[in-house]
Amino acid sequence: MVGELEFEKPIIELKKKIHELKEFTKTADVDLSAEIEKLETRLKNLEKEIYDHLSPWNRVQIARHPNRPTTLDYIELLFENFFECHGDRYFGDDEAIVGGVAKFHGIPVTVIGQQRGKDTKDNIRRNFGMPHPEGYRKALRLMKQANKFNRPIITFIDTKGAYPGKAAEERGQSEAIARNLFEMAGFSVPIICIVIGEGGSGGALALGVGNHIYMLENSTYSVISPEGAAALLWKDAGLAKKAAETMKITAQDLKELGVIDDIIPEVKGGAHRDVQLQAKHIEQALKRSLKELTNMSGEELIRHRYEKFKSIGAVIDEQVTNTQ
């Protein structure tokens, strides 16, 4: 089965067995309703047992699922009158990042996100969701435009990382990312960032300096991939599972560490199981954020963003606090 994950095999096998029994009852004069009911109850219990106790590596696998919804999938379901803009006005257009102007419940917004492909041909076109410098410069152009016309900015993060090739480095990959970080910190409009799949390194952070940062329940956000971390730490990329367990890359870990603001729940088994329902979960989070942030002034939004990132990684000495 396409997109079948290793830990899901018991569920898939049980579903097949239930399907076979149902088909058999249609052609044979045998009543198997009791057996089917027992298996369906067992299936519900099995799904709860597996999906309620996912390991970090399981979540990495779900975040990488080939059928996982992309930025354009969510744009189609969440926004109206989306008008895509192209090019950075310096070099060219990068289809690994999509962006433009749209309306969210009647509010004009700027939407930007990394875009990976759905199949091999599309992945090549989108460079597997790994942006070049012109992609980040296009994003910055659109964000500056949003700031000028007082439109909230919504970003969708879904990339393994910025493209590390020679051409990207020659055109200033690091400078493009650093420029985005610097400029986003000073915009006087609400910025909402949502990690919808993999959030890899600076390539993800270049769209991640926001007032509110959300992660889908089974997404990941990290300075490096589990394979890369394993190769660096233990000289063996095959130990990626071990690395994922120790890196604190899941939404649950990052919420606890204060890196993100909240977790958007996912459909049981992953967002790809029901894209429309998943979009509704994201819609609710966006509505809450916009309601809160649009009541702030430009200066308040900048201060809010500054204090938010300043507090990440801060350690409070409990002993000193208690003695004061």
Written description of the protein model:
This protein has 324 residues and is an alpha/beta fold. The protein folds into 2 domains: 4-52; 65-308, 2-enoyl-CoA Hydratase, Chain A, domain 1 (Alpha-Beta Complex), CATH 3.90.226. The chain has 15 helices and 8 strands. Strands 1, 2, 3, 4, 5, 6, 7 and 8 form an 8-stranded mixed beta sheet that branches. A hairpin with a 2-residue loop joins strand 2 and strand 3 (107-114). Helix 1 runs antiparallel to helix 2 and helix 6 (133-148) packs parallel to helix 8 (173-185). It is globular. The model has no long low-confidence stretch (mean pLDDT 92). GO terms for molecular function: acetyl-CoA carboxylase activity; ATP binding; carboxyl- or carbamoyltransferase activity. Its EC number is 2.1.3.15. Acetyl-CoA carboxylase is a heterohexamer composed of biotin carboxyl carrier protein (AccB), biotin carboxylase (AccC) and two subunits each of ACCase subunit alpha (AccA) and ACCase subunit beta (AccD).
How would you describe this structure in keywords?
324 residues, alpha/beta, 2-enoyl-CoA Hydratase, Chain A, domain 1, 2 domains, 15 helices, 8 strands, 50% helix
Short structural summary:
By secondary structure, this protein is an alpha/beta fold. Helices cover 50% and strands 15% of the residues.
CATH superfamily of the largest domain: 2-enoyl-CoA Hydratase, Chain A, domain 1
Count the DSSP helices. 15
Beta-strand segment tally: 8
Instruction: Provide the CATH topology of the largest domain.
Output: 2-enoyl-CoA Hydratase, Chain A, domain 1
Q: Helicity level, as a percent range?
A: 40-55%
Could you name the CATH class of the largest domain? Answer: Alpha Beta
